[in-house]
Amino acid sequence: MSERVLRVSSVRTATASSRIVRLRLGGAAFPFRPGQSVTLGPPEQPARVPYSFASAPEDVVRDDSL
């Protein structure tokens, strides 16, 4: 498992139990496959929450965000 630090650029409530989190890539490549997921959390804390990718790979390149 690899770890990477990315900045959160926005968080929106989608439903009572789900959020949409946008991460800034800062020009770094972030290859992924449809259906893949990631666990997110502050770097200084062990708690992590799973999130599914909801971006198309070409949108990630265009917007420089995930």
Walk me through the structure.
The protein is mainly beta and 66 residues long. The chain contains 1 helix and 4 strands, in the order E-E-E-E-H. The chain has one helix at 57-63, and strands spanning 7-15, 18-24, 37-40, 49-52.
Which residues form runs of ≥5 with pLDDT under 50?
A: none
- Tell me which oligomeric state these chains represent: single chain
**Tally of helical runs:** 1
The rounded Rg comes to 12 Å
- Main sheet: strand order: 1-2
* Relative strand content: 35-45%
SSE sequence, one letter per element: EEEEH
Largest sheet: 2 strands, antiparallel
Shape: globular
Kindly report the average pLDDT value: 87
- Total beta-strand segments: 4
Separation, N- and C-terminal Cα atoms:
19 Å
Helix content: 10-25%
SS content category:
mainly beta
Set down the secondary structure blueprint:
Layout: E1 7-15, E2 18-24, E3 37-40, E4 49-52, H1 57-63
Antiparallel strand pairs: 1-2, 3-4
Summarize the structure.
This protein is mainly β and about 70 residues long.
Give keywords.
1 helix; 4 strands; 66 residues; two-stranded antiparallel sheet
